[in-house]
Amino acid sequence: MSVWDDLTGQSEAIAVFRAAADSAIRASGGDASDNSMTHSWLITGPPGSGRSNLAFAFATALLSSSPDGDETTRRQVEARTHPDLAVLTTERVIITIDEVRTLLASSQFSPSVSRFRVMVIEDADRMTERTSNLLLKALEEPPPRTVWILCAPSEADLIPTIRSRVRSVRLRVPSVQDVARLIEQRDRVSPELALQAAQESQSHIGMAHRLATNDDARRRRELTLRTVLGIRSVGQAVLSAATLLEVAGEDAKAITEEKDSEERASALRSLGIEPGGTIPPALRSQLKTLEEDQKRRATRSLRDGIDRIMVDLQSLYRDILLAQLGAQIDPVNVSVLSEVKAAAATSRPEQTLAVLDAIATARRRIESNVSPALALEAMLVAVTRKDSV
Predict the structure, then answer these.
(1) For residue 59, which of 109, 118, 241, 259 is within the disulfide window of CB 3.0 to 4.6 Å?
(2) What domain range is 180 assigned to?
(3) pTM exceeding the 0.85 threshold for the entire prediction
(4) Going by C-beta distance under 8 Å and a sequence separation of 6 or more, which residues neighbour residue 235?
(5) Closest C-alpha to 233, from 388, 387, 384, 389
């Protein structure tokens, strides 16, 4: 089984990375090499396009003896336990300069069991300019067998000097059919559920998986759409904003709760503490650090949950607008299709466009640290004022 088999809708990018891995392996064996391989890469693409999955597939190929990877290396990379792999991902809003310093120190080590040492930075767009400049020095003069793989939504999210020192590969949004096929095969769900999850996630692979395998996630998404469709007054808009925040909080809690429990249990085992045992005072500071990291993750997860709600609402009003215009394009929200048609029949396209503008404005405000509650209230009040357009 090839390491590339689980990727979907990115045949062009896979061809680039597989050729690079093949070139690197042949060059390390003394064969003449082409220009396919370089020491620093940037994988860009919209959320859910599979940036991280492709980065780790490429890492597996580089750390293996074959451009298609081998099973042992694949398992080690999936568990993040391979001795020649270093990964920087963050649960914070930004990647700190200390985290990058630690990664840079690790990048100076020689490979221990593989031909290369591979450094992966997920969400590289979360680095500040000062942190990016620190990374820049490593990209300018890397050790001879160190390979950097950065992931970000777009090239514009990184400073120009970093962009000039990496080879950029842009991913496209996979088709709904590609995502549905992957979810059906990998998660063993019905074709109908896989297709609905792929449509409602708008081809976001991770979200499609969650919607296909988690009844509560589907319920919360449908509640979001029906709540907004039911708004008829300013008072309802304010109450609905509170409901949406509650939904986002439940979603964030569901995502982080299980992971927090697993992390704490793992930390206690590593410290030699039995489940339910007393924590010695000397070790409490380590657990406190873990708890603080988990709180930061919960904050980021809540922000991500609010943004997911915004994306879902954009898809809802996109469907309404398409219905108003009579466009023959498949809707995203098939579970509320009758309500979408009713909303389209009782409003005008320019009113729907005004709501879409309000949603986009709310997203920008929240990104600028405006209170989510205030931004949501202002956005939903716009839903009640459509008649004034």
Answers:
(1) 118
(2) 176-213
(3) no
(4) none
(5) 384
